[in-house]
């Protein structure tokens, strides 16, 4: 678990890895002894593999609310109806 | 009048809060100052994009408290209730004299109600409160789609809000619509809505855009082994396409900028009157 987070952090800070080709990234992950889950995520772009490895519950609103849902305020309430007798 | 005390001069025992952004991509976007806020805090609250990022944050501080559990089971609790609870729980630590850091993904002040609200409440009660910007999904969108918002202008709307109000659109500028995946949810309880709701959005947009106009569906990366996902379709096809709540819809300009000759001529005359050299070329 720790190793995967450490690898993700180091890749995120490495200009040559962050935007490496899929083939180069695959080779780099192999040389870094990355987990199968991390390599599958890198290959497919599907974060669920890494989430599963780290014990996350995929698709759970509770634990993995999608971006923007968690922070967006509600739209303001509708304006009051005009008093027809006014 | 409420005057917020300067954070740097606040007494050590006085509570404070800093709302910081973690950026969008794990490892890539966290600023040194935001990291410092996290490391120096007594308590860290977290509202992040997923559990992987939360585990990363836990490596920076021993007392990270996730705010996600306040959603309940995510089916029948209005989100605004959850957001108010977030403010309450953060403020309770501030009032207890703690240095609190609230960590949000992206930018803490963009499409985010709680960070602004907790800062407002804290300042109103005399506590130091500060927001530290982060790299937002909007920033990533500009980079990944190659859009310069300064070229033609750019308008941003939360999709449901666009339907809720009679909003004048400018088809000469980019239109960026957030949360299209749950457009039309007036209950504030759902995390997704169906094609019939997206059809309402399309019908509203069709007043200003042709149905065959290009629509870009964008999702930025959150892990550094990912690439952004960019799909293109037409406005007409939008209801038929599954759009997740992480995805954003962009409509490029539908018409070109029109020169305002009258105002330009007025500016030229001003330049002449003030003896400003004419533009080269």
TrEMBL record, chain A:
Basic and acidic residues composition bias: residue spans: 39-56
Region annotated Disordered, chain positions: 39-86
Biased composition (Pro residues): 64-80
Protein name: Uncharacterized protein
């Amino acid at each position: 678990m720790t190793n995967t987070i450490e690898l993700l952090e180091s890749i995120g800070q490495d200009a040559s890895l962050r935007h490496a080709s899929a083939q180069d990234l695959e080779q780099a992950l192999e040389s870094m002894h990355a987990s199968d889950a991390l390599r599958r995520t890198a290959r497919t772009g599907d974060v669920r593999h890494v989430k599963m490895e780290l014990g996350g519950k995929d698709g759970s609103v509770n634990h993995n609310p999608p971006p923007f849902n968690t922070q967006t305020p509600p739209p303001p309430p509708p304006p009051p109806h005009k008093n027809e007798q006014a | 009048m409420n005057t917020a005390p300067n954070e740097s001069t606040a007494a050590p025992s006085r509570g404070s809060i800093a709302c910081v952004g973690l950026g969008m991509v794990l490892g890539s976007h966290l600023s040194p100052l935001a990291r410092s806020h996290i490391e120096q805090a007594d308590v860290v609250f977290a509202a992040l994009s997923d559990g992987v990022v939360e585990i990363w944050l836990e490596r920076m501080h021993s007392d990270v408290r996730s705010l996600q559990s306040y959603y309940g089971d995510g089916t029948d609790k209005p989100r605004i209730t959850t957001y108010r609870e977030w403010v309450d729980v953060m403020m309770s630590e501030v009032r207890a004299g703690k240095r609190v850091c609230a960590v949000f993904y992206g930018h803490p002040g963009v499409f985010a109600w709680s960070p602004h609200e907790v800062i407002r409440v804290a300042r109103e009660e005399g506590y130091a409160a500060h927001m530290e910007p982060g790299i937002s999904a909007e920033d990533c969108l500009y980079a990944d789609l190659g859009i310069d918002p300064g070229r033609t202008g750019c308008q941003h709307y939360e999709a449901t809000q666009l339907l809720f109000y009679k909003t004048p659109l400018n088809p000469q500028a980019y239109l960026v619509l957030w949360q299209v995946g749950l457009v039309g949810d007036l209950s504030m309880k759902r995390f997704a809505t169906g094609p019939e709701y997206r059809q309402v959005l399309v019908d509203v947009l069709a007043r200003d855009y042709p149905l065959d106009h290009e629509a870009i569906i964008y999702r930025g990366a959150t892990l550094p082994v990912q690439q952004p996902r960019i799909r293109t379709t037409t406005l007409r096809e939008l209801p038929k396409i599954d759009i997740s709540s992480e995805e954003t819809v962009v409509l490029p300009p539908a018409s070109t900028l029109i020169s305002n000759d009258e105002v330009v001529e007025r500016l030229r005359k001003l330049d002449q009157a003030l003896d400003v050299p004419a533009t080269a070329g």
